[in-house]
Amino acid sequence: MKQGFVMAVSTAVLALLAVGAPAQSAEMKPFTMDDRAGLAGSSPADVSFLLDAPAGKHGFLRAVDGHLETGDGQRMRLWGVNLTDWSPGSTMIPARKDAVMWAATLARYGVNCVRLQFLDFVTPRGLIAAGKTTRRFDARQMDREDYFLAQLEKHGILIDFNLLVGRPFQAGDGVTDAADIGQGAKGVSLYDPRLINLQREYARDLLTHYNPYTRREYRNDPGVAIVEINNEDAIWVGFRAPAPYYSKELDAMYNQWLRKEAPVAEALAVRRESGAGGEEPVPLLTGSEVTGAPAARYNAEAQFYLWLERGYFRKMRDYLRRGLGVKCVVLATADHNHGGTAYPLELALSSFSVLDGHDYWEGPWERKVKSPMVNDPLHSTAVELSRTAVEGKPYTVSEVNEPFANDYEAEQIPILAAYGDLQGWDAIFWYTFEPKKDLDGRLYVGDPFDMSLDPVKMTELATGALMFLRGDVSAARKAVTRSYTEEQVFASDRLPGGDGPYFTPGFPLWLPLEHESRISSLHGPATAAVSGGEQPNPIVSDTGEVTWNLSREGEGAVTINSPRSQGLIGFRSAETQQPENMTAKLDNAFSAILLTSLDGRPIAESERILLTTGARVTNTGMQWNSAHTGLAKWGGPPTLIEPVTGEIDLHGLKGADAVLVQPLNGAGLPLGPPLRATRNGEAWEFAAGQTATTWYAITVRR
Hints:
The protein is 23% helix and 22% strand. It is globular and about 90 Å long. The protein has a nine-stranded antiparallel β-sheet, with helices on one face.
């Protein structure tokens, strides 16, 4: 995650440029998520049955035959959230009185794993004790963390520890120029000996910590599913350290590598091309020099960074495994920059058993009018994330979102859950969920990334969990693989941005929407250009269960059509095919509706079905700037929804005598009386949106 940006958003995104017209209109209705009330009642939308409590009961998570498995050999998919605390009144580590409530809430929405980000912040935000050093944990915070994690595990929720994220290194840690290296010391954390020793010390202190509530050290707890070494960190050709001390250190390491590791002929060529004479050190390339750098100099520097990254991650993994006895899955870091290539980093991580990716659709750092992802399938998160997966290895997505405010945010969760199943991914973690210290008076979306009070994303989290965790969308029948020589891997860093997100000239970007996409090799041979013909419309998965269609005007829609999960996501004008058991005639120009079996049977035979209906979400008083590129006013409570209205028909419901459609409130409890669907031939019809809501529990009586 872009840490510095997010911190700025928390305080400054509320005042971007001139004030435009209010975002809400007469169509917008209040709808508030209410998790405290949800704990008190029994929700018909509770999907906690998807979890197998307590977490870790089947042993440590491991990578086997290309997928994640439990210790006793069961396939394991993870549907998770990141836990952070950026928005007003939020906390990453809730007080004991709220720990049970938040654990139960996450379980109720189908979350079976949480990724703990920024634990390396100073208290009260993280675990580190306030002071002149970051080398001690705060005892009170650790107790709160221990209790919260024990509650999560009790409810069937696994843990992902992210070790180095935003640690604010101090001079008292023995770190040179600590104030200049930024939170998490990006780049320099991969090679500076002092910073590496501090990372090992932190890992030791955290993972050997004894949790009195689980009666295990974290390293011995099978409820801990994943340990990540470093969040979003890499070194690219042309990297410049943030302070002169670290630049000189890196220059010295490079010249030592040239003398000891590089072939003599290549080292001489590098010296020649750089103009360094005698014993003069060879300077590293700067960012502006990379594109036109001569081949020998460019390739030598790329090889050096590969050696540096590979050595850092392997040694850290070995320390976790052999030094500390960590038994769960160990991740290195994520492919996180889709404006550039991922392949040099992936080559450095090729010895790891699991690969990981991050992606966002049009975050608030992009100063442009927000556009719908359904209109741009070739650069969707489904395509961008698919470039990272490697043949024979599990693939996880530990950060993804379509950040607020975006009129089209309802599209992301159902689309990615469907394509995640198609691609055979093993985990999707949404960024982010922010537990609240005090819910009173703060029931509105308070941060671009926070989903916890978003009435569309939270309800879709439940239907998405059903679809992804059960594998309702069939895995692709065919896998398209790509192979790269090492030379191609390094050269990809100099390709223009227009070749993204795959940075593989000749590769048709619609193929990941049809078939599984994997890398077969990063050290040759080269794969010839893939023949894909012209871009089809619609783009249909090879299983026939997911279809992406564009209208003549370029407006898009995705249809999901599997026996247990069916959906229509996008623009009404796209005229895409209707799913087998649902048709919709909606008033909304753009919406996302997802129909999912609750009892595990095909929808045609199901007696309990969950329906989510999403469109726009705003806060009261929220206003866009005049260019509609950002918010001039953030707004406050209550959060408002554009209800999805119109006729929805359910058909093919075998032996149905009656169909009851119960609107639900923000606690997942009944909101008014149920609607009785009207029978019309083989269909059961009802009018959506008569009650302002984003979800319905449907009962089919036979």
